C-alpha cells in the first residue's frame, strides 16, 4: 500500500496516539475495558503515523500528503 498520510497528519497521529496509550495504561487497573480500548486505539494511531499508511484513508480515497 502506498503512503497516504502526510507529515502533519503523521505527527498529530503519533502525538495523540501516544497520549491515548499512556492514558489507557493508567486507566487500565480501574477500568480494564476502557483502558484496553484506549491503548489499542492509540497503538493503531501510532502505527499509522509511523508508517504513513492508513487503510481507512485508502478505503475513503483520502490522501493528506499534499504532494510530498
Low-confidence residue ranges? none
Provide the domain count.
1
Q: What would the principal axes of the Cα set say about the shape? A: elongated
The chain-level mean pLDDT equals 96
For the largest beta-sheet, the strand count, sense and barrel status come to: none
Strand composition percent: under 5%
Secondary structure tally: strands = 0
Distance between the termini: 16 Å
DSSP helix fraction = 55-70%
Output the structural class: mainly alpha
What is the overall number of helices?
3
Element pattern in H and E: HHH
Compute the CA-based radius of gyration: 13 Å
Give the quaternary arrangement of the chains.
Answer: single chain
Please outline what is shown here:
This protein is mostly helical and about 70 residues long. The protein has three helices and no strands. The chain has one domain (about 5-55).
Describe this structure in words.
This protein is mostly helical and 68 residues long. The protein has one domain. The protein is built from three helices and no strands. It has helices spanning 7-27, 32-51, 55-60. It starts with 6 loop residues before the first helix and ends in an 8-residue tail after the last helix. The model has no long low-confidence stretch (mean pLDDT 96).
Amino acid at each position: 500500500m502506498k503512503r497516504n498520510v502526510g507529515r502533519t497528519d503523521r505527527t498529530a497521529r503519533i502525538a495523540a496516539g501516544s497520549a491515548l496509550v499512556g492514558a489507557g495504561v493508567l486507566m487500565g487497573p480501574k477500568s480494564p475495558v476502557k483502558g484496553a480500548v484506549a491503548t489499542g486505539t492509540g497503538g493503531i494511531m501510532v502505527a499509522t503515523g509511523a508508517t504513513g499508511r492508513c487503510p481507512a484513508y485508502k478505503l475513503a480515497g483520502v490522501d493528506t500528503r499534499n504532494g510530498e
